[in-house]
Amino acid sequence: QVQLVESGGGLVQPGGSLRLSCAASGSIFSINAMGWYRRAPGKQRELVASITSGGSTNYADSVKGRFTISRANAKNTVYLQMNSLKPEDTAVYYCNANLHSNYGQALDSWGQGTQVTVSS
């Protein structure tokens, strides 16, 4: 019914930048919050950043001042601009959306994940 497709991951040197994108498609009536999570090897999944439909944002302490989340509501798309990347940012990044489908369902949808590797 609903698909989230991420793009923009890759290999970058410490101090570099990447921009992740996530587009939601399918039987979507409305999207509430969208966010980015990550799971590093041997660690639990953690929230990186989230943004409401009204534009209110929330960030993990570890990324404040370096990452910026934004969204284009008309495109059902959320972005994560990542600057000053550190090796500890290496993880699989997952897009998440809390939404209502055209069938009246409240859904918590996830993307397939995109690998971000920060290494020299």
Q: Can you tell me about this structure?
A:
This protein has 120 residues and is an all-beta fold. It contains no helices and eleven strands. The strands form two sheets. Strands 2, 4, 5, 6, 9, 10 and 11 form a seven-stranded mixed β-sheet that branches. Strand 4 (28-39) and strand 5 form a beta hairpin.
The main sheet comes to: 7 strands, mixed
**SSE order, one letter for each helix or strand:** EEEEEEEEEEE
Distance between the termini: 40 Å
| DSSP strand count | 11
Approximate helicity band? under 10%
How many H/I helical runs? 0
Q: What structural class do you assign from the helix and strand content?
A: mainly beta
Q: Can you tell me the residue ranges where pLDDT is under 50 for at least 5 consecutive residues? A: none
3D shape:
elongated
Nearest-integer average pLDDT: 96
Radius of gyration: 14 Å
Strand content: over 45%
Task: Provide a concise account of the structure shown.
By secondary structure, the chain is mainly β.
Write the layout of secondary structure elements.
Layout lengths: L1 E6 L2 E3 L5 E9 L1 E12 L6 E6 L5 E3 L7 E6 L4 E6 L8 E11 L4 E5 L3 E5 L2
Parallel strand pairs: 2-11
Antiparallel strand pairs: 1-3, 3-8, 4-5, 4-9, 5-6, 7-8, 9-10, 9-11
Descriptors for this entry?
120 residues; mainly beta; seven-stranded mixed β-sheet; four-stranded antiparallel β-sheet; 11 strands
